[in-house]
Fold these 2 entries.
Entry 1:
Amino acid sequence: MKNKITKLCALFIIFAVVGSSLNGIAIAANNPVNPTGYVPNGQLNNTLTNFIISSVAIIHVPDDYSTIQAAIDNASVGDTIIVRDGTYIENIVINKRLTIQSENGSDFTLVQAQNSNDHVLSVMADYVSLSGFTVKGAGSDKSGIYLRSPGTEVDHCNITDNKALNNGYGIFLYFSSNNTISNNNVSNNQYGIYLDVRSNSNTITNNIARLNVEVGIYLNSFSNYNTLSSNTANSNNYVGINLDSSNYNTLSGNTANSNDGLGIFLISSNYNTLSSNTANSNNWKIINYYSSYGYGIYLYSSNNNNILNNTANSNKMRGIYLETSNNNTISNNIASDNGVGISLDSSSNNTLSGNTANSNIWDGICLHSSSNNTLSGNTANLQHSKGTINRMNGIYLWYSSNNTLSGNTVSNNEDGISLYYSSNNTITNNNFNSKNNRGISLSQSSDNKIYLNDFIDNKANVYSYNSTNIWNSTEKISYLHLDNNYTNYLGNYWDNYTGIDDNKDGVGVTPYRINGDNDSYVLKIPWENYMPKPASTPKSTAAPTPSLTPTPAPTSAPTPKPTPAPTPAPTPKSTAAPTQTPTTTPATSPTLPPSHTPTPTSTPAPPTKDGWIKVIVTVLLVICILAVVLFLIIYVIRNR
């Protein structure tokens, strides 16, 4: 009888293999784009896989085994272990592909470290699924849930719906990639979620990381191409979300509020995208008696990042702060009710556009020792609700040169735009309006080009001290005025100008006096009305914009100074690495491959030769199945 059963099982396996092979052939025949029959992402859709999965065992703890570790040791690859409610005092090692889940969730199933000098749950195999546990009791340099296999990566694991509380590290990934960490609560640890040493392409989503001693979520040592979305990293004792030497990551929809120091912090991290995150109400904290924080989003020595559509409000010091960081794009963010809205320090070649920096205590946007930046289309209206503070600038340049400021709106400030020891900047197409104490203020600042701006309803339109500047374009501009085309130098619109325009070309005859300077080409109406002359090509609908790089004019504009090269960023202080993984961080960032998006395939053509092959293979498959079924029937009858 035993021999008969063995033969019968063998027949089933043969049937499964034959069916799988024919199915693969059919897939290949019907897939001209992928004729090998290979299914991407490991989704093997064949009969043999289904046959194996149907034999997976379900093990219950403590019904079948008294401990979780015993169940793991006796399980086969692919088995499911279900842990019933209770407290399990163990240090567990998962060294094979398993699904391990609690019966009723993390509120009812606790795994407490038996030895605090070891990880509570060590995942050492790929494709492990772990969900529904509370893990506690790992010591200061150990983890509640730890992913690493000695000498190799741990990949494609799914860690969901767990609570990791009161451990050194809540969840720690070391040299582990393509994992999903979702819907976990990692609180009251030293670090919440920690990715270290080239932990790449992981998905970290919908986790809560709060009240951790150091950092809520931390990416370190070239942990690249990760996606962090919809996480909450609030009320941590230092940083909400921290990237250190980690590149090409995407942070979107995260909340990093009320941390004692920094909301989102990038150190030596490049080519990252931060979009639609909230970093509000982060507090002042003094670190080692030298540094004080209270920043929403802070980039230190970090280049080529995109900071888009984020909200950084009510932070103690700065909403968005760049220090020795170059070539970043800061666009469409809201940074209001901070000490300073957006601040650049020793940072060059950045683009700030479409940002709102209102109601900050000191400055809306501040550049300190920063050059070659472009500020366009920003709004900086201060009039702070907490009281009047004398030093309140819409946009403030301090020892900053060769920047371009265009299309910005500044109102209700002490100074709309203020320059201090700042030269060779271009200031054009801005609106200084609505009750600035001074529209523009220049102190020890010369060789700036200031033209095509509106100065309206300010207590004083301009203040200039020991400064010699150019107050009109340095090349002639073609424009349309009162339905007539003109070409002339253009200055600024001053609402208190009383000179005349005798030839009706829109430019005043009498200069506007600015201490020792003159605006010799005063606009009679706001600059927006001086439309450029239409292009001569009939098909072109776009009008040329005024040149922002003038050539020498009769005002004898000085030759601009050479653009200084960006100052090399200093090496930041290293962040302490976990003691259980004494590895050496690579000195330079590796060459990283670009991401590839599959090319959409076109609509399949009508069946031709491949279609007939599919029909023939399908018929053979049916015949094979009928033959096997018939053979089994005859076999059973003969062996009764």
Entry 2:
Amino acid sequence: MIAERMDDLDTREWLLTNGLGSFASGTVCDARTRGYHGWLIAALDPPGHRTLLLSHLEASLEVAGQIFALGTNFWKVGKVDPLGYQLLRVFSADPVPTWIWGQGDWQVSRKIAMPYGLLHRGSEPRFTPAQPQVTNRVLVQYQYTGSQLGVLRLRPLIGDRDFHRLQKQDPNLTFSQLVGANQVFLQALKGGKGSKAGIPWQLRWSHGHYQPEGVWYWNYYYPQEAKRGLDYLEDLYSPGYLTVLMQPGDTLTLEARVGLPTETLANLNSLAFDQAVLAKQQRLEREFLHLPHVTGTHSEIWEHLLRASDQFLVYQTSATTPTIIAGYHWFGDRSRDTLLCLPGFALTTRRYALARKLLIRLGRLCCQGLIPNELSEGGEDPVFRNIDCSLWWIETLGLYLEATQDWDFLAEQYLIVKQIYKAFTAGTLHGIRVDASDGLITWDDASVALTWMDTLVDGQPVTPRNGKPVEINALWYSALCWAEKWASQLSENPKAPNAERLKNQARRYAQQAQEVKASLQKFWNAQQGYLFDRIEPDDRLDTTIRPNAIIALSLHHCAFTPEQGQRALQVACDRLLTPYGLRTLDPADFAYQGHCAGTLRDRDLAYHQGTVWSWLLGPFIRAWQRFYTEKGQPFPLDLQPLMTHFCQEACFWEISEIFDGDFPHTPRGAIAHASPVAELLRHWHDLVRNEVERRC
């Protein structure tokens, strides 16, 4: 993707990851606008404990006695200095972020690559539980062209801090350095109470002269953090600078790598960078080699969707299992997002072994019928503050089994299905239980938020959904249908020792499913032609128009009639649908907020009160396929705005987490979110076919 005009600062973002949770990120203009921007933010306990080590290299070029600063920074006083963006001629995000600065008869290019961090044999990751084979590193390459000798000076700006926090100069914070041949070993030393040493890492280069010269740079200004009402000033330390004489055509390669000094590393040369880029491309080709080749005008986007999906798939070295990062920069491992992503990332792409591993891992976390959503780092106990993750687990297990017919896996996982069923029917944490009067799932406590609309402000849910939420009970109905099918199927196995018991279980599931199906009609609002969002604990009906009704209509087993589905989808088209996803609230509602911006409190108040969530396009598409495809009506979607966003807007080749509900639907939240990428992969071929039909 090429930016041909660089008249103004271009703060669109780029992202590189390494399969461990580490990442590198920044902007086109090269100024850091977030505390999450840096060239080596390393997951020290993959995929957690993400730590900023190398922020960037401040670069200047001297030609014929004239010095040109190539960098761009924002500062506390509101100024931009230096003005390297004015020399920027070209930026390309593919296959790696590449900048070209130039003036007159000279030109300097820079490329950044983050090699895959997991050493593997063949197509499977290679793990030994005691010593996982991982490496966190980033490569940078400069190339100079011109008619005269150039002098390139590079000053590394470093830190050692959690990626959620910013660094300040502190008498108790120092950095040690040990200079070697074409390398320097660095480590933070944190004195005072609870003193400790930081992570050791090294910076290497192919050639040049390094001069130690420790200096602090104060008050880097991050405008995106200021807009979000967060801490926005940072101090970074520079241990010295590198001077490199560059003949026309010369290339300089650098590497920042986590770890203690070792003598086994090969010397850096001009080929090291290209070899690393090629190795990563070849790994991706192997990952998706089994998929049919896609041709046509949308083939490039399909390839980039596959690559984007790989950015979120990471390995936990402590557990030697895969998981999915919910989004970059700041999200971690979340069960609900993993389950929402699994069909697109693993079933559409036919990576069935990956799907099994994800399901096994989350199933093992089930406790009292619940699966924790946010999986904590550092060995802390998980928090079971949700009602739906275990129901999504059953739904996703069903999709996996439909795709694979892997009935041996069903036999292994059926005990977890029964555990979830028993916990919900007998009652579990937070007062979650089945209402004996109608068979629906409910809980009473208004102070806890247990659905995906889980934001709290001042300790209270912004969108109270206690009682009987519509999508939760639709998931419950689908889970009962799956359980009936599976119990019947397992009972037919001639080797099953408990066939009669399984048949009885199937009959019980079927009976409850029919009861729930009938009770779900309580959610039908004939006056609105839509589904009530919830039945409150006092049996009042919530008429709020939200996308949860569409989620309910999109599940594999659906309890609603074709007429109800069609009418509800038309309401969603009129009130909720945008080119980027579904609004979380009808704009006509008095509580609607069309912009999700400002302080954390402001954003939390708007998060589910009108903000567009991009992943909700997936449920909308599935519901439309169920209720309208046979009528020959194409999806009421223009794919182009979302594709333009994916290719060249907020973050190149990624999709933002959320968008403003009001036009022009400014992208907000995480710049790269896993679930919308997964949903596009899941429905890509249908969407492309739909786009062709719409234009014919």
